[in-house]
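User: Quick sanity check before I run a bigger batch. Here is a single chain. Can you write out its predicted 3D structure?
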Amino acid sequence: MIENRIIIDQKYVTVIHHCREALNIWETQMKTEAIAEFAAHASRILADLHDTKEPVLITKAGKPSAYLVEAGDYEAMRNRMAILEGISRGEAALLAGDVQSHEKAKQALSKWLK
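Assistant: Done. Predicted structure follows.
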């Protein structure tokens, strides 16, 4: 069990590293607009967003207020988060010993495997 824990932790650390790396890239490439500028030029800013796919940080009084991302990118992020949350729950269940045999899992999933 200790070997499995180490392997899981190494994978988890790798995932965390890649997530942080992706966030750093995302934040350094992000355009920033004050909320007043966004309100005055929303059409242009949205057009730029669609052309460049570059997220926009909307600020209010100089502080982050909202992130503007293209709909497809937002949906992809939500899907990635759902997958990562599922992996995390699965690893936690494994570490807690909350597992089933292959046969029981196959029976439980049989309605989707037809």
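The longest strand covers residues 63-68.

User: Great, the batch can go ahead then.
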